[in-house]
């Protein structure tokens, strides 16, 4: 659906996006994961046609950002809302829907219901809570029934319940009409749900894979062995990342098979064990050397 080659953007001498390639298929949920300043928003701004790249090509179903047809495919939720704070939700959405000639009334009413907008439609946008605003922003971006939705840090500042609600509805829309979603996030749990993750650092894509493959390659699974006494624990050969404390030994391992081998090797010396899968946090630290919130 979307093909990007060698995309690059400088601001003065600073390289904000450094020669990145992307391939995004219809219906996927794609996450750009990175720290502040990694280049996520600059990438999104180029993909939505707001910012002109210095180099590289972008093709969405064969269209380039400068073409009118390009924007017909897109819905965008920016970090800062584009709605008028002094107008009611209903007025804001009515103005937005007039911008789209082919706005489908039934689809729009369905969106209002799914995102629970009807109860707040007569309130001024300014008077809404953060979570309500985000729901209205998302509805606004979906009125034209776009095929590709960009969400720039959709969950920042939202409580868990609101996040959950928003993702329930977005997942429903993906299933119902094959909506493709590209999101930027600092939240590992949001990247966890993605079909494909691009990890960005200093303008570059430092990893590009499924969550499962990233975990298999970079996440550190750990096996804790509880020995019957300290001398047995001390006899275990340890690597740099392994730890020993009294009767407890924590070893970093790469696979379930390796865990099984260790457990069977020490089965007569231990009274218990615990196997913990590595997380997205491990992946991020492994790739960028930094923790993500
Ligand atoms: N208009 C601009 N002028 C100058 N520098 C910019 C501009 N926009 C972005 N940058 C710089 O480009 C780099 C990438 O910024 P960008 O906003 O794309 O990062 P990000 O990953 O989206 O960060 P955040 O998570 O904070 O939104 C940063 O160093 C930023 O300071």
UniProtKB/TrEMBL annotation:
This protein's UniProt keywords: ATP-binding, Nucleotide-binding, Transport
Domain of life of the source: Bacteria
SUPFAM superfamilies xref list: P-loop containing nucleoside triphosphate hydrolases
Record carries keyword Nucleotide-binding: yes
Every ABC transporter domain range: 2-227
Secretion signal, residue range per the UniProt entry: none
Molecular function terms from GO: ATP binding
Classification via InterPro entries: AAA+_ATPase, ABC_transporter-like_ATP-bd, ABC_transporter-like_CS, ABC_transporter_ATP-binding, P-loop_NTPase
Keyword Nucleotide-binding included in the entry's annotation: yes
Recorded family membership: Belongs to the ABC transporter superfamily.
Protein name: ABC transporter ATP-binding protein
Organism per entry: Apilactobacillus apinorum
Organism taxonomic ancestry: Bacteria, Bacillati, Bacillota, Bacilli, Lactobacillales
């Amino acid at each position: 659906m979307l093909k990007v080659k060698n995309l690059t953007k400088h601001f003065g001498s600073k390289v904000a996006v450094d020669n990145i390639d992307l391939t995004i298929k219809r219906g996927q949920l794609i996450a750009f994961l990175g720290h502040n300043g990694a280049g996520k928003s600059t990438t999104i701004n180029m993909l939505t046609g707001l910012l002109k790249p210095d180099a590289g090509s972008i093709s969405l179903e064969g269209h380039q950002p400068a073409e009118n047809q390009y924007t017909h495919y897109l819905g965008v939720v920016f970090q800062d809302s584009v709605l008028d704070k002094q107008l009611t939700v209903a007025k804001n959405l009515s103005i937005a829907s007039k911008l789209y000639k082919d706005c489908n009334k039934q689809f729009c009413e369905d969106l209002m219901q799914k995102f629970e907008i009807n109860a707040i439609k007569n309130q001024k946008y300014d008077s809404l809570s953060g979570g309500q605003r985000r729901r209205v922003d998302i509805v606004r971006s979906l009125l034209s029934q776009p095929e590709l939705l960009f969400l720039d840090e959709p969950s920042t500042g939202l409580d868990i319940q609101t996040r959950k609600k928003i993702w329930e509805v977005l997942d429903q829309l993906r299933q119902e009409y094959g909506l493709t979603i590209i999101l930027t996030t600092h939240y590992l749990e949001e990247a966890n749900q993605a079909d494909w993750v691009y990890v960005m650092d200093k303008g570059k894509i430092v990893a590009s894979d499924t969550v499962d493959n990233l975990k298999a390659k970079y996440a550190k699974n750990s096996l804790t062995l509880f020995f019957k006494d300290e001398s047995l624990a001390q006899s275990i050969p340890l690597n740099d990342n392994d730890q020993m404390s009294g009767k407890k030994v924590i070893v970093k391992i790469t696979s379930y098979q390796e865990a099984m081998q260790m457990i069977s090797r020490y089965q007569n010396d231990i009274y218990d064990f615990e196997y913990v899968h590595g997380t997205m946090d491990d992946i991020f630290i492994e790739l960028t050397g930094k923790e993500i919130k």
